[in-house]
Design brief:
Layout lengths: L6 E5 L4 H12 L3 E6 L2 H8 L5 E5 L5 H11 L4 E4 L14 H25 L4 E6 L12 H21 L4 E8 L5 H14 L3 H9 L10 H12 L10 E4 L5
Parallel strand pairs: 1-2, 1-4, 2-3, 4-5, 5-6, 6-7
Helix pairs in contact: 1-8, 3-4, 4-5, 6-7
Length: 246
C-alpha cells in the first residue's frame, strides 16, 4: 500500500510502538510528524527515515497540543500513542498516581483527537493506541485500566459523531508489548515480588494465550490497515492484538 501525499502525526513517537509506527508509515510513503516530551528520544526516532520530522509536545497541555498541530500543518492521520503506566494495589494507589495516569492516557488522547479533528481537511483517520486493559480488568493497575476504558468510550462516542463523513475513529488494543514500557513493568514486578527479571517477563508473557509479548510491528500493521483502502466501514472498533485473550 502507499500513503504518498498523506501526513501522519504520532504522539509518543520517540520509542516503542510510536517509533515503529513512525517508521512503518514513512516506509509507506507518508510524511510523518512525531512528538513527545523526550527530545533525545524523538531525535533518535526521526533518524530512522528521511520522511520523519520531530516536534516537541506535552499532550497533557492544551496550548502545547494546539501549537503542535499548527507547526505540523494539516494532518490526515492522527495516532494518539503517548501513554504512561504504573501499578499498585488499589488501597495503596495515591491520588497523584491516579491523576498522573489519567492526564496522559485519557486527557492526552482527548486533546490530541480534538485538535486533530478540528484541522482535518476532509478524509481522515483518528487512531488510539489503547490496550486490552481498555476492554477488561487487570489486578493492581486500576488507574491504567480506567484510563484505557475511558479512551474506548471516547472512541466509540466520537465514531458516531463523524460516521456520516469520511473520517473514522478506532482503537488498537494490544496486550503486553515488547517495548521499553513493558521493561519498566518487568522491573517493578521483579522489585516488588523478588522474582528475577526473566521470571517477571515470563509472567507477563503467560497472560497471552500465545505465551508471548506482542511486537510493536503488529500495532503498526493494524494502524496501516485502518489507514488504507478497504477500512472505510471500520469505525468505533477495538482491534485487539492479544492472541485471543480478550
Amino acid at each position: 500500500m502507499t500513503l504518498a501525499g498523506k501526513r501522519v502525526l504520532v504522539t509518543g513517537g520517540g520509542s516503542g510502538a510510536g517509533a515503529d509506527l513512525a517508521l512503518g508509515f514513512a516506509r509507506a510513503g507518508a510524511e510523518v510528524v512525531i512528538c513527545g516530551r523526550r527530545v533525545e528520544a524523538l531525535t533518535r526516532s526521526a533518524t530512522q527515515h528521511t520522511g520523519i520530522r520531530a516536534l516537541p509536545c506535552d499532550v497533557t497541555d492544551e496550548a502545547s497540543v494546539q501549537a503542535l498541530f499548527t507547526a505540523a500543518g494539516p494532518v490526515d492521520i492522527v495516532i494518539a500513542n503517548a501513554g504512561q503506566a504504573d501499578s499498585a494495589p488499589f488501597q495503596r494507589t495515591t491520588l497523584d498516581q491516579w491523576n498522573a495516569i489519567l492526564v496522559v492516557n485519557l486527557t492526552g488522547v482527548f486533546l490530541t483527537f480534538r485538535e486533530g479533528l478540528r484541522q482535518m481537511p476532509g478524509w481522515g483517520r483518528l487512531i488510539a493506541v489503547c490496550s486490552t486493559a481498555g476492554i477488561k480488568g487487570y489486578a493492581k493497575i486500576a488507574p491504567y485500566a480506567a484510563s484505557k476504558h475511558g479512551v474506548m468510550g471516547m472512541v466509540r462516542s466520537l465514531a458516531l459523531e463523524v460516521a456520516k463523513g469520511p473520517v473514522t475513529v478506532n482503537a488498537i488494543c494490544p496486550g503486553f508489548l515488547d517495548t521499553e514500557m513493558t521493561d519498566r513493568s518487568v522491573q517493578i514486578i521483579a522489585e516488588k515480588t523478588g522474582r528475577s527479571l526473566a521470571e517477571a517477563r515470563a509472567a507477563l508473557a503467560a497472560l497471552s494465550p500465545q505465551n508471548r509479548l506482542y511486537q510493536p510491528s503488529e500495532v503498526t500493521a493494524a494502524a496501516l490497515y485502518l489507514s488504507g483502502t478497504g477500512s472505510e466501514g471500520v469505525n468505533g472498533q477495538a482491534i485487539t492484538i492479544s492472541g485471543g485473550e480478550a
